[in-house]
Amino acid sequence: xxxxxxxxxxxxxxxxxxxxxxxxxxxxxxxxxxxxxxxxxxxxxxxxxxxxxxxxxxxxxxxxxxxxxxxxxxxxxxxxxxxxxxxxxxxxxxxxxxxxxxxxxxxxx
Length: 109
Hints:
By secondary structure, this protein is an alpha/beta fold. It has helices at residues 7-19, 31-40, 58-66, 80-86, 99-107, and strands at 2-3, 46-49, 51-52, 55-56, 71-75, 91-94.
């Protein structure tokens, strides 16, 4: 699952992940559409921007994390302490994200 409110960034991430052989769900550009999609099926992994048009991704992240979904947060202004405390197994990359940075996350799946 790819969730980012910036369409170009979201599609770029999706294409990078597809290059690694990952089947993509989304990309989703707002919290509600991603929550709706995850209500019917938990994805194998999620790449989440934290700030979605002024709305924080935390409700989706909590839902996915509680259901065992590996999470990679991507953000230019991440709340690192919250991620460490609430999502200790999640990873974090600063934007912009390069294919080389995505590789370790994909390989860990």
